[in-house]
Design goal:
heterodimer, A: mainly beta, six-stranded antiparallel sheet, 2 helices, 16 strands, about 5% helix, disordered N terminus, B: alpha/beta, FAD/NAD(P)-binding domain, four-stranded parallel sheet, about 25% strand, globular, binds flavin-adenine dinucleotide, flavoprotein (chain B), Sulfide dehydrogenase (Flavocytochrome c), flavoprotein subunit (chain B), SQRD (chain B)
């Protein structure tokens, strides 16, 4: 059985020649020569949303060996990338939440690879029933940046970290109220480090929702944590917790 | 009704078209249709079912004898209207031979084709029109349950909760802080919380000039945001402050005893009055009848408003997933008519008439000043869509008199829609 057929059978999703649309190349590259694990990675995302600008997703990866790399993709955009993550440590199972941007109905795809070289794939179609009644009809330029909000609290034996940076995540494809194209403005990366070094590094792309939000479960004994977002111009937004 | 010209009233009525062709005044037999819920969607449905097919056996199951509308309940909070002026009843419907059963429906037994009432009685049906509106989702905000709502009212179903919030505002000392906490989408009436902030600020400016309104929002942006924020600045200066999710506006925990809220990133707020509008879902009967999806709302077939999983059940109003139409009374009324038309066509063995919808949401910025957003909707590839280019929004720089004109239109709309839903006594 070919790899692609296997993936299709595993997912039992809508079968098409290029099931991953504009993310096809990225998915193929990621999976190259690997057998896709059938269990362990799950993606929780609403099957429909009213506002595609902020789609909340939760993902869980069980029984993975550190370090884990993850790629979040969407199938219906010219630039399918949402974010790439490198995770060194977590309170098992690995749990992450964020918000993604889906301008129209499409597939959301998560790829994972762990320290033993095993790969996972999970995907779900999301229907975007966008209503202009809900949000501003045209983009308003992100007037201010920061602060970096963050909060840490005990969760089971580990720690729950929630963070959000006020940032427009401007793609360079949207127009302002007066019809001007808004210049592209994306941060370069987000890092979380603990007492034993780097825990997580995230590179954001166009598909990550404005005001990037991340929630994750970290092992205890890593505090104080240092969080740092770095913007395109090198400006850093940092927080230490607790 | 004051200050409305005949022209404005007609304009109000014209906003509520009835789309079923006369030809379908059909031979639908003496089928029995149970309408569950007598709000905007249910009352409209009961009235139009009977009006269109007089021989139908139409039963309205609704525990209340008096219904208070949410539209214009923000005016009550500001002391601009009496709660009693929002009251509707079912006498005109009864006069029209709709049987009003004053009970809660517990669940729909799809297999037996019966609706089970709270008291255990079972009513047989040929079709059901389910229009139960919303319930609060008490599971999301820690510490916020029915009891807590008697201290921190949501006032998102009108009536006793509206009166409670009004009393709290009146009793508050000058200088007290009023917090309005707003949930994430989807919820009933997207611009409603911001209209509420506007009218409460108006009340405070008159009665408690040192008091302020703080909006803690779970969202990053909101309906008619630019219009509201411009209006607030012009009318109320610094009296209204909006904190979105990026500013730590999402409430995760409530302490009703201390009147204190905890937000997602650790900020705490205490206030003299807290209006906590929690996340919502379809009213409980929908889940108990197995009709909701994982979102807690009822998926439908958009051309007919039949429940996706049960063709004999039609669902209209806030309980169903009709996005991109907002959860509004305007939409509920329009959807009920589409559902009735499809239901009658089905009983008569005909194809459902094709449907088209419009929604307009008016929001008051102050007494006599309103803004609106409107759009048309239709079916494309079996999906409900907002028709491209149909969106209209009040301008940020209005010509003289426009805000006042829109406020008069909002009044006219309200009068018309209430008459369209509950009818009037002969
Ligand atoms: C503050 C505020 C302001 C608003 N302003 C506007 C506005 O200006 N314009 C606008 O278009 N919309 C407005 N809305 C929205 C509007 O109120 C709702 O969208 C509308 O009420 C939805 O109608 P519905 O029939 O689905 O539900 P409802 O009107 O809530 O009616 C549901 C009915 O079902 C009954 N019911 C529930 N469960 C059962 C059961 N198991 N058995 C029997 N009966 C049951 C309930 O008692 C209730 O009477 C506003 C809402 C709020 C909160």
């Amino acid at each position: 059985m070919t790899l692609r057929l296997l993936v299709l059978l595993v997912l039992a999703g809508p079968v098409a020649a290029q099931p991953w649309g504009q993310a096809q190349n990225s998915v193929e590259q990621w999976l190259q020569g690997h057998e896709v694990q059938t269990q362990g990675l799950s993606l929780a995302v609403p099957t429909w949303v009213e506002d595609g600008a902020f789609v909340a997703i939760d993902l869980t990866l069980r029984d993975a060996q550190p370090p884990v790399s993850l790629s979040l993709l969407r199938s219906g955009e010219d630039d399918p990338r949402i974010a790439t993550l490198h995770v060194q440590a977590w309170e098992a199972p690995l749990r992450l939440s964020t918000r993604v941007r889906l301008p129209r109905s499409q597939q959301l795809i998560v790829l994972a690879r762990d320290g033993r070289g095993r790969v996972w794939l999970a995907a779900q179609a999301v229907e975007v029933l966008s209503s202009s009644c809900l949000s501003p009809s045209s983009a308003q330029p992100g007037s201010n940046l920061g602060p970096l909000q963050a909060w840490l609290e005990p969760h089971g034996r580990g720690l729950e970290l929630r963070s959000l940076l006020r940032h427009p995540m401007e793609t360079g494809r949207r127009s302002s109220v007066d019809g001007q194209l808004l210049p592209r403005h994306l941060p370069t990366h987000f890092e979380v480090s603990g007492t034993h070094g780097n825990l997580l590094r995230i590179e954001p792309f166009e598909g990550l929702a404005a005001n990037p939000y991340w929630r994750m479960l970290l092992p205890a004994g890593q505090t104080p944590l240092l969080l740092c977002w770095v913007d395109a111009d090198g400006r850093a937004f940092s927080r230490q917790l607790p | 009704m004051q200050g409305l010209t005949r022209r404005q009233l007609l304009a109000g009525a014209a906003m509520l078209p009835w789309l079923l062709p006369g030809a379908l005044q059909a031979s639908v037999g003496r089928a029995r249709v149970l309408v569950i819920g007598g709000g905007f969607a249910g009352a409209t449905a009961a009235r139009y079912l009977k009006r269109q097919a007089g021989q139908l056996d139409v039963v309205l199951i609704e525990p209340k004898s008096d219904f208070h509308t949410c539209p214009f309940s923000n005016h009550v909070l500001a002391g601009l209207r009496e709660l009693g002026s929002l009251r509707q009843d079912y006498r005109a419907l009864q006069q029209q031979q709709v049987l009003h059963v004053r009970e809660w429906a517990r669940e729909i037994d799809l297999q037996a084709r019966q609706v089970v009432l709270q008291g255990g009685q079972r009513l047989r049906y040929d079709r059901v029109l389910l229009a139960p509106g919303i319930d609060m989702d008490w599971q999301v905000i820690e510490g916020y349950d029915r009891n807590a709502a008697s201290r921190l009212p949501h006032a998102w179903q009108a009536g006793a909760q509206t009166a409670l919030l009004r009393r709290q505002l009146q009793a508050m000392d000058d200088g007290g802080l009023v917090i309005i906490s707003v949930p994430d989408n989807p919820y009933r009436c997207p611009p409603g919380p911001y209209e509420r902030a506007s009218l409460i600020a108006h009340y405070l400016s008159q009665a408690k000039p040192r008091s302020k309104v703080l909006i803690l929002d779970s969202k990053d942006s909101f309906s008619k945001q630019a219009l509201f924020q411009q209006g607030w600045q012009a009318l109320y200066g610094e009296r209204i402050e909006w904190v979105g999710r990026a500013g730590d506006g999402r409430v995760v925990r409530a302490d009703a005893g201390r009147r204190e809220l905890l937000c997602e990133f650790g900020q705490r707020h205490r206030a003299a009055v807290i209006n906590l509008i929690p996340p919502q879902k379809a009213a409980e009967i929908a889940a108990r009848s197995g009709l909701v999806d994982s979102s807690g709302w009822v998926p439908i077939r958009p051309a007919t408003f039949q429940a996706r999983e049960a063709g004999d059940i039609y669902v209209a109003g806030d309980a169903c997933i009709a996005a991109p139409m907002p959860k509004s009374a305007y939409s509920a009324n329009a959807q009920a008519k589409v559902a009735v038309a499809a239901l009658l066509a089905d009983l008569a063995g005909q194809e459902p008439p094709s449907a088209a919808w419009r929604n307009t949401c008016y929001s008051a910025l102050a007494p006599g000043q309103a803004v609106s957003i409107a759009a048309d909707y239709g079916i494309q590839e079996q999906r409900l869509v907002e028709l491209p280019g149909s969106l209209t929004l009040s301008p940020l720089q209005p010509p003289a008199g426009l805000r006042a004109q829109e406020a008069a239109l909002a009044d006219a709309w309200y009068q018309s829609i209430c008459m369209d839903a509950w009818g009037h006594l002969a």
